[in-house]
Amino acid sequence: MTPTNYIWLCRTPPWCCYTYNPCNSPADLTRTTTTYNLFILFVSTHVQISMATASFINLKASSSSPWIGQRSFNQRPGFSSRSPAARVSVIRAGSYSEELVKTAKTIASPGRGILAIDESNATCGKRLASIGLDNTEVNRQAYRQLLLTTPGLGQYISGSILFEETLFQSTTDGKTMVDCLREQNIVPGIKVDKGLVPLPGSNNESWCQGLDGLASRSAEYYKQGARFAKWRTVVSIPCGPSALAVKEAAWGLARYAAISQDNGLVPIVEPEILLDGDHSIDTTLDVAERVWAEVFYYLAENNVMFEGILLKPSMVTPGADHKEKADPETIAKYTLTMLKRRVPPAVPGIMFLSGGQSEMEATLNLHAMNQSPNPWHVSFSYARALQNSVLKAWQGRPENVEAAQKALLARAKANSLAQLGKYSAEGESDDAKKGMFVKGYTY
Fold first, then answer.
1. Which residues are catalytic?
2. Segments of the chain with pLDDT less than 50
3. Mind listing the pLDDT tens digit for each residue in 189-241?
């Protein structure tokens, strides 16, 4: 089954226009004429779009448009028909621009991905409780020290997202957690959002708070050694999602990204599309395209430099309760289709979240996506899919630290091989095959 190929011209970034197949009939074409401002750079016989360097020209999007069979965004149900105001977009090239590009490329390096240990103290407490430990700062510090001092971790891990408490913590011998990472050429990152709260006027959806004071906090995190940031918002398919929730998620991510770059932090852009629901993989694809079209529209509105960001998308899968499960090849096909329609090649890296998949499932899906060349580094930013085996091996006992660190290295190596397209599931344990989806999971 071939997913319907639509784009929304008034929202979708212009580079996407050249990657689509025609829709089903000329009736799908918009019948109104609107002037759109696009960046266009002609290289040889191919058209490449560069938001930072190309010149503006005006194109008419009418029934005679060369973008045959593409539906205007304002024809999508539930979305506004307003057109963006004509403007000259200015891409900021601040004092951090070169550093941002360098940091993003370091994180998006071959065979490496991100270890996410940015769970809130409450969520970390749930992890500790699963092995019979109390949620105390001492126990949280011991667990994070175990992870970040694993010998050889930098061979497979390029960055680690930390919770604020961890960024300012030290090991028992007085070395900062940041220095532990730097010694292994791992870039320290920081979770900067303040969590989800109900979104008034929506269909029981949420929005992410934390923009207030973000600039000053980001500057302080940079001084402490952080070089990239993460902001997680969510989109729920069973709730619609409503146009309001999608816009709120996209705008918040864009403002956060601009503020982060202004303060020297590479922003990870993460609109997580939750697994909750019984929807099909085609529904997930449709929602993902809507969400990422909106996200990149507002990233451009906020003059975010694409070469200095990373993405943390959900894989395109059926809902957790859907009667038919998709194999890794199908998930890879749908996910890469969505990304190629929505994400410009200027973005250095796609760092997938695991979202409750089993350790092995997350690795197999990543492996499938790296069986063919991609315009970006396609890798991982896993939390549970890297930590589950570690907790079970550790059990909170000092004598088990070495075994737990070996478990972390094993999972990191497996995902490193998947990033290179060389992973084999042979020899995986039964525990690695167990799903970790939790309905309504919070971080």
1. 270, 312
2. 1-89, 93
3. 999 999 999 999 999 999 999 999 999 999 999 999 999 999 999 999 998 89
pTM of this structure: 0.80
Query: How far apart (Å, rounded) are the C-alpha atoms in residues 245 and 239?
Result: 10
The chain-wide mean pLDDT, for the chain, equals 83
Cβ-based neighbour number of residue 79 at 10 Å: 18
Q: What is the 3-state secondary structure (H, E, C) of the chain?
A: CCCCCCCCCCCCCHHHHHCCCCCCCHHHCCCCCEEEEEEEEEECCEEECCCCCCEEEEEEECCCCCCCCCCCHHHCCCCCCCCCCCCCCCCCCCCCHHHHHHHHHHHCCCCCEEEEECCCHHHHHHHHHCCCCCCCHHHHHHHHHHHHCCCCHHHCEEEEEECHHHHCCECCCCCEHHHHHHCCCCEEEEECCCCEEECCCCCCCEEECCCCCHHHHHHHHHHHCCCEEEEEEEECCCCCCCHHHHHHHHHHHHHHHHHHHHCCCEEEEEEEECCCCCCCHHHHHHHHHHHHHHHHHHHHHCCCCHHHCEECCCCCCCCCCCCCCCCHHHHHHHHHHHHHHHCCCCCCEEEECCCCCCHHHHHHHHHHHCCCCCCCEEEEEECHHHHHHHHHHHCCCHHHHHHHHHHHHHHHHHHHHHHCCCCCCCCCCCHHHCCCCCCCCCC
Per the CB < 8 A criterion, the answer to whether 193 and 231 are in contact is yes
